Amino acid sequence: MQTVHDIATLRDALSPHRRAGARIALVPTMGNLHEGHLRLVDEARAQADVVVATLFVNPLQFAPGEDLDSYPRTLKDDQGALSARHCDLLFVPSVETLYPGGLENLSQVHVPIVSEGLCGGARRGHFDGVATVVSLLFHLVQPDIACFGEKDYQQLAVIRKLVADLHFPIQIVGVPTVRATDGLALSSRNGYLTPAERARAVAFPRALARAATAITAGQPTRDALDAARADLVQAGLTLDYLELRAPDLSALEPATSSHARLLAAVYLGATRLIDNVDVALPGADHG
Ligand code: PAF
Questions:
Q1: How do strand 89-91 and strand 145-149 relate by DSSP bridges?
Q2: Ligand 1 centroid to 130 CA: how many Å?
Q3: Which residue's CA lies nearest to atom 3 of ligand 1?
Q4: Where are the beta strands (DSSP E) in the chain?
Q5: Residues 264-284: pLDDT tens digits?
Q6: Verdict on whether the full-model pTM lies above 0.85
Q7: Which architecture characterizes domain 188-280 according to CATH?
Q8: Which class does domain 2-175 fall in?
């Protein structure tokens, strides 16, 4: 696997593949890779001839006071893991390379509506930062497909709308969440948890799974969500949001939908975790 740091070398590395008509897949990451990221690489590998990963801790998507400075940077380990999963090319730009004019007056991409609420409520400007850097990476790599994890479900929805609205000729592939054996969704931020917090964190996926099962079995949504909130409080987790939405994150209309998405964010101490699950809805005529 070749690692490149500047835009000219990235373009040089990609141009023979492009000339040969190869199908190029992009896997954007912020590094500190775990199995969830590596499944994105596996999916990219399965669907394309050339796999390009990017590793960039994007300052634009961190609000003041968030964990930009402490975000784990593990380049050597990440290179080893990507290489073992047969990634072809890794692009690791500096902040100056991607944003040479600085952040202050940078042109930014805003994806309305779907960026608001849920994580966009607590993390103001976060999805503008994501949409801007992803647009830049799409522009630089010009992939045929790009893979993103369903764990960041709102991010995936933002990127799908971005690609549709701006006519990027890129197929967006959502890859299912990878979970630890106790059900906790893998996340770089799980590493911030103390052993005691990690033990309590299991209540999070359990509360979501229990609510999803109850709704599918016909329990009124409000009761199922109240029970999930009670489970989380009982486990000492602080809830940011818990919402049942349509799969595209618009308001849910149960009479016309067969599935919904249950999404939540919680705090354990200073660590913020997110998760979401599919919910099969009962009783509607979906024919
Ligand atoms: O999901 C992430 O790791 C980041 O938000 C992304 C998509 C790489 C953009 O910085």
A1: unpaired
A2: 6
A3: 29
A4: 2-4, 24-29, 50-55, 89-91, 145-149, 171-175, 238-245, 259-268, 271-280
A5: 999 999 999 999 999 999 975
A6: yes
A7: 2-Layer Sandwich (3.30)
A8: alpha beta
